[in-house]
Amino acid sequence: MRIQDFKNKDIHELVDLQARLVSANEKLNAVVSFCDVDAQIKDYKMKEDAPLFGTPVVLKDNISTKGVRTTASSRILDNYVPFYDATVVKKLRDAGAIFTCKSAMDELGMGGTGLNAYTGKVNNPYDLERITGGSSSGSAALVAAGLTPLAIGTDTGDSVRKPAAYCGIVGVKPTYGRISRYGVIPYASSLDHVGYFTTNIEDAALALEVMAGRDDQDMTSSYKEVEAYASLLNGDLKGKKIGIITNVIDAIVDPRFRPSFDAFTKKLEEKGTILEMVTIDQDLMNALLPTYFIISNAEATANHSNLDGIRFGMREPGEDLNEIMINSRTKGFSSDVRNRFVIGSYSLFVENQDKIFRKAQKVRRVIVEAVDEALKNYDVLLAPAAGTLAPKPDDSYGEDLNNTFMVAENHMLLGNFSGYPSITVPYDMVDGMPVAINLLARAFDEQTMFNVAKGIEDVTGLAGITKEDF
Amino acid sequence: MEKNKAYFRKLANQIMIDLSDDEIEILQKEFEVTLRKMDLLDKINTDDVKEMVYPFELETHFLREDEIENVISQQEALENAPEVKDGQILVPKVVK
After folding, report:
1. What pLDDT sits at residue A8?
2. Is A437 within 8 Å of A427 (Cβ atoms)?
């Protein structure tokens, strides 16, 4: 499914698509709330030349929508209905989008599996037993199932790019500050990005044009001019210099990956791409996950201190204010999220700040300097987006300390630490499941990122691929 | 310092949450793994390195003119409040 499919189409056909979405959700469990498509069609006044004319769009459930429940898949926000739209919602609507649903996610964005939504596990369209990855789980599943051409997510640690890999679609995390985060329920403010999913690069380029731009209501939003990414798209790979991150290749132990990846890179070389291996200091790669864990949990603890059941959200009874807050927060958050808050809080104690929190912030800078050094001679850095096929819930997926988990499953954090643009693109199918690569480009150089991704898409022939059983 | 159940319960209560005994056991195990992960940071030399608080140090926010903007109405502010009385959010008596 592509954005182009909705050009010159009767928007009333979206009613049928919505019915299909409702039906498919019984299998996918990807939706928290359905939007009123009939009402949007009735009020629709867009002209046919609008960039997203009649295009159905899915929003992750941490994106504020006026009058539509926005829970971030957390019990504590189960009854929360924003009275305003996030900036990205306004921009999409002004471009012609029609919103079909709010998609399920790992609670408050804190997870990478799609197992920790208040509405339950989100199922991978390619194998319902497998996970989608997360935290933008529902958005990924719905694009991969051919139920929407565009779904919005957020990416704090790889929460768009990992589910894109597991579900075989395009996942974009633009440069930090490129898309406004106003109205997006935060997780970790120094790492949070709005990102999105499409089935092809042309749509990805167009979607960024629509959503990007300065917003005074997001103090981190950039003044950089938004380029005409779609019309400037050029997939010619000849002479493009790509650095392949060896640390990631070396960390992947699944024997099914290598033949497929080698065949893929050979095709790139045949198109004139200059591929070189580039190695980042292994100690820095090993430090990625702990650095992320410290910074993200600390920021999350602070950001979510306002979720207490007093001014909004689910309130539990209590004898006094303190008891109400403790009861509301205890019942309102899952065990996993509460644990993360405790660890985040621990790192912010005065006696731990230098040793833990500030140390992590310093390591972050050293890591980003290493990324700059690695990117110096290349248009983009490339690595497999994941070290395994989408796992099943019982597969060993714990946060242990082996190299596969620490590096192969977490290297996309480089994009969050640096803020640099990054994209996941599927390149093959292995045992019936999609596998993908990830690109990392220089700050605000989304055009080069899209161009290389387009070249890759031309090589793989996987543009527009979805699982058509839904 | 040995981190027993009481220690973790105190940590949790400080941020206004509670944990069951079972949850604390899980947290204790996670905490051990977390501390081992944190040790990996010690391998990185950060002498004379400044903390990276945000990705970019470009100036994107400024003091604005002291003019009223982006105001929400009282009705909007109270729309999601669990209990409201006389235009205010209602909570149990704080001063007794």
Report:
1. 85
2. yes
Which residues are within 8 A (CB) of A429 and not within 5 positions of it... i.e. 6 or more apart? A168, A435
On chain B, the residues whose CB falls within 8 A of the CB of A343 are: 30-31, 34
Alpha helices for B1-96 (secondary structure H): 5-14, 21-39, 74-78
CB A384 within 8 A of CB A262: no
Q: Is A253 helix (H, G, I), strand (E, B) or coil?
A: coil
Q: Identify the domain containing residue B59 by its residue range.
A: 1-63
Give the nearest chain A residue to B92 (CA atoms).
A320
The answer to whether residue A253 is domain-embedded is no
Q: What is the pLDDT of residues A408-428, one digit of tens each?
A: 999 999 999 999 999 999 999
Mean pLDDT, range B49-53, rounded to an integer = 97
Hey, are the CB atoms on A361 and B53 less than 8 Å from each other?
yes
From chain A, the residues in CB contact with B33 under 8 A are 399-401
ipTM of the complex: 0.94
Question: What token pair was written down for A134?
Answer: 């997360």
Q: How many CA atoms lie within 13 A of B74 on its CB side?
A: 6
8 Å CB contact between A137 and A158? no
Domain total of chain A: 1
Is residue A107, in this structure, part of any structural domain at all? yes
The total number of structural domains that make up chain B: 1
Task: Decide if B88 is inside a domain.
Answer: no
Q: Is residue B25 assigned to a domain?
A: yes
Inter-chain CB proximity B94 and A321 less than 8 Å: yes
**What does residue A380 show for φ and ψ, rounded to 5 degrees?**
-145, 160
Whether the model pTM is above 0.95 = yes
> What CATH number should be reported for the domain holding residue A163?
3.90.1300.10
Min Cα distance A274 → chain B (Å) is 29
Q: Are A425 and A201 in contact (CB under 8 A)?
A: yes
CA distance A311 to chain B (A): 5
Task: Return the residue in B38, B49, B76 with the most chain A beta carbons within 10 A, the one to mutate for interface testing.
Answer: B38
**B89 in any annotated domain:** no
